[in-house]
């Protein structure tokens, strides 16, 4: 099969769909890989690295896109819609619940669009291709939060770990899944006071075995969220509802009651966000101040660490890419987890969760 790897065009998105080591595996399976020139530069992979692995370097996005299988990291941008075509398989993060325009274009063009974030192992409630980036985003949430709490960056001037005689900063995490857990690990590690809110008592029990008394674990409801958010120096949105828009848990009125110069990092922004005042930003312009609070809403946070993130992503995606390359669309019949990743196929919106978001697009 011919596999295309275009260069990512999202603002400062330096990850790449396939690493040279992944290309080598695919070549060993007798597939042809076409990598757009300089697609891997930002992640530390040169064109020569890809050539050595067996790829052909192509000069334009169009020549990389014009393949049976296209492997990316982020969703197609408006400038790339013209490359979508019937009979093509697109394998990437999509997050369609927050992007009606892209959803409509995928339906119109007839591409089979498989989203990393909805590939789900049946019966295990596991999202194997979302997990590695969730781990990185969770850890980065505290790293970026700490940075923008610095006074020179517009924050309160709080050191999350505090010092002897001065209390540490308070980190409040909404959601105890992978993102929330990883954020808590870093926050605990730097010595912050950490609170996690989650609606699952079972998950809270698991987190207790993980953190013990180092983290305050609170059942999530409106009263508890209100009390926690008001005291937060760093508020991290870590909510995930598979395939759907994230629910708004923090209203503008509640943001107004936060301390001036406190920081919000909403990792759920690529699914619409769970903070009413937060909108998507970019690595070039990552923050803005609203209601006196610093808001960080970069939807492709792991793009900040592309060398690590590309390899972590490929470790998880490669077996699925190989299966798609070997079997084509029949791979969906063989692998139920991969089948659950299909969002759009044959001009139809097929994923149940995304159908609930856009019922008028279901035919």
Topology of this protein?
Elements: E1 2-5, H1 20-28, E2 32-36, H2 47-53, E3 56-58, H3 61-65, E4 69-71, E5 89-92, H4 100-109, E6 112-115, H5 131-148, E7 170-174, H6 178-189, E8 193-198, H7 201-211, E9 215-219, H8 222-231, E10 234-237, H9 252-256, E11 263-266, E12 287-290, E13 293-296, H10 306-327, H11 331-334, H12 336-340, E14 342-345, E15 348-349, H13 352-357
Parallel strand pairs: 1-2, 1-4, 2-3, 4-5, 5-6, 7-8, 7-10, 8-9, 10-11, 11-13
Antiparallel strand pairs: 6-14, 12-13, 14-15
Helix pairs in contact: 1-2, 5-6
Catalytic activity: L-alanine + NAD(+) + H2O = pyruvate + NH4(+) + NADH + H(+)
EC number: 1.4.1.1
InterPro entries: Ala_DH (IPR008141), Ala_DH/PNT_CS2 (IPR008143), AlaDH/PNT_N (IPR007886), AlaDH/PNT_NAD(H)-bd (IPR007698), NAD(P)-bd_dom_sf (IPR036291)
Order of strands, main sheet, comes to: 3-2-1-4-5-6-14-15
Name the helicity range: 25-40%
- The first-to-last residue Cα distance is 31 Å
Radius of gyration: 21 Å
Largest sheet: 8 strands, mixed
Approximate strand percentage: 15-25%
* pLDDT averaged over residues: 95
């Amino acid at each position: 099969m011919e596999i295309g790897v275009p260069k990512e065009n999202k603002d400062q998105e330096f990850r790449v769909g396939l690493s040279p080591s992944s290309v080598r595996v695919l070549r060993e399976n007798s597939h042809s890989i076409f990598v757009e020139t300089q697609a891997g530069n930002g992640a530390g992979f040169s064109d020569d690295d890809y050539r050595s692995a067996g790829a052909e370097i192509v000069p334009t996005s169009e020549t990389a896109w014009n393949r049976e299988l296209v492997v990316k990291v982020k969703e197609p941008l408006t400038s790339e819609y013209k490359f979508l075509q019937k009979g093509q398989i697109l394998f990437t993060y999509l997050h369609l619940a927050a992007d009606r325009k892209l959803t409509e274009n995928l339906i119109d063009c007839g591409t089979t669009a498989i989203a990393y974030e909805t590939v789900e192992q049946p019966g295990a409630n596991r999202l194997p291709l979302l997990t590695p980036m969730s781990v990185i985003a969770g850890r980065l949430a505290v790293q970026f939060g700490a940075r923008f709490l610095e006074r020179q960056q517009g924050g309160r001037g709080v050191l999350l770990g505090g010092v002897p005689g001065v209390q540490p900063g308070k980190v409040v995490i909404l959601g105890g899944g992978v993102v929330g857990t990883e954020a808590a690990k870093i926050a605990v590690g730097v010595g912050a006071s950490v609170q996690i809110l989650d609606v699952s008592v079972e998950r809270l029990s698991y987190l207790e075995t993980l953190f013990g008394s180092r983290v305050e674990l609170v059942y999530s409801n409106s009263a508890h969220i209100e009390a926690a958010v008001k005291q937060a120096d760093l508020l991290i949105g870590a909510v995930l509802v598979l395939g759907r828009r994230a629910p708004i848990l923090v209203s503008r009125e509640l943001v107004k009651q936060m301390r001036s110069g406190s920081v919000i990092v909403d990792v759920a922004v690529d699914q619409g966000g769970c903070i009413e005042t937060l909108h998507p930003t970019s690595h070039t312009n990552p923050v803005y101040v609203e209601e006196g609070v610093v808001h960080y809403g970069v939807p492709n946070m792991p793009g900040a660490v592309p060398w690590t993130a590309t390899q972590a992503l490929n470790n998880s995606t490669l077996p699925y890419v190989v299966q798609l390359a070997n079997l084509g669309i029949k791979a969906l019949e063989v692998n139920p987890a991969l089948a659950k990743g299909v969002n759009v196929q044959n001009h139809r919106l097929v994923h149940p969760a995304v159908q609930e978001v856009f019922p008028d697009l279901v035919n």
